[in-house]
Amino acid sequence: MAKSSKQLDRVPILPLDLGPVEDVKVNRSAVERRAATISTRRTVKKEWQAAWLLQAVRTIDLTTLSGDDTPGTVKRLCVKARQPIRADLLAALKVDAPITTGAVCVYHAMVPVAVEALEGSGIPVAAVSTGFPAGMNPFKQKIQEIEASVKAGASEIDIVISRQYVLTQNWKALYDEVKAFREACGPAHMKSILATGELGTLKNVMRASYVCMQAGADFIKTSTGKEPTNATLPVSLVMVRAIRDYYEQTGHKVGFKPAGGVRTAKQSLDWLILMKEELGEEWMQPNLFRIGASALLNDIERQLEHFAYGRYASMQYQALG
User: Which residue from 109, 304, 310, 318 has the highest number of Cβ atoms inside 10 Å of its Cβ?
Assistant: First the structure.
């Protein structure tokens, strides 16, 4: 069985090395051509597709980040995280192993509710932090927010970087910020959200990825889900190649999380194919790959129902919890 996030070896904080950051070269046309082949050159069908979709479920950070979240909403989401696929459907698919989502992701105020609802399940609670989504809060307040979420029981912290440091090429400031966030996380695993839709260029995305990894990010994540442009395959390709380069240079394995806009079962397969082709099967597991999503699970369950029973159910029959 794959390691849980709690069992994952931490990515160490390394000294800032601007060499690989300054040497970054990105051919946008080549990246876009390669990304375009992911959904056309490879495919999985029939029972293999069902197996891959079940694997996608295991990697989902089931998320609710709305202004109208209530304890009831979060509790229902946690019920769904515990059993994301209906028991009758799993029986029809002849699946015996337990399946849960990779985590539940909420705002800080809902962390205690989620922790209580998930007690005994082994499913980690992830809290978005550091002034999510804009990241414009005072630095001291960002640190306090991380520490409060960890104290409340969050075992994963999704931080947002200050985009201004990337846009002004102030890599030392970005490194110092992310390093401080990592230290504030203590035992909690840290995912660094780059907000790639606001970084301007693919070169900036790759450079920011390197800096965050050197500062100890356990995962690098595409987006908050609140930007006009969120997870895309070209951006994801650049980030996973940065992860591959970093692993080859240091031997440290950093995880990857696309978030925002991944809504269909087909899209989840595209990202799994990307991980398999660029990083290998190890990076398809929940300890090194997550998909941040809310509506995705409903479409996956709908596709699995079609595989099992030969018919599609209306989305209104896919229960939230």
Answer: 304
